[in-house]
Structure formats: structure tokens, C-alpha cells
Amino acid sequence: MPPDGPEHWADCYFEENRLGHRTSNVAESLNSWILEARSLPVQAMMDNIRIKMMMLRAERLKDIDKLRKDGKRITGDRRQST
Question: So where are the chain's domains?
């Protein structure tokens, strides 16, 4: 059963940032994230974006490890907290 209140499905009612950003326009968010890479040749641009994605993933994995060490439960259900 899906969550009930709009705070579970509507960004305007969600009290915190979701996934480290505060925009509902994915293209706008991506364009600002790769702004410097867009002026590079294609291969260099792709390498730059790949490295950014790997660094972002590594940061998130560190955050998850820290939460686990602090005894917090990590679940796929974002509504659940302990």
C-alpha cells in the first residue's frame, strides 16, 4: 500500500532535501552538475561525468557506513526510522 500523506510523495510537503538536492527539474539539476564538463571534448566530458558519479557514489557509501556504525538501521523504506 502506498504511503498516505502528501509528505511522502510531494516534494513541496517534504521537510528535508531529497537525495542531496532541492529541485524538481532533473534536467536543470544535471546541467548545473556537469556545467564545466560540457565545454570539454566528448571523451573528456564523459570521463569527467563518470568520475563525478563515482565520487558521489563513494560519498554516499561512506555516509551509509557511518550510519551503520552509529547503529542506525538502513532500509529501502525511507519512512521507517530507528
Answer: 1-33, 40-82
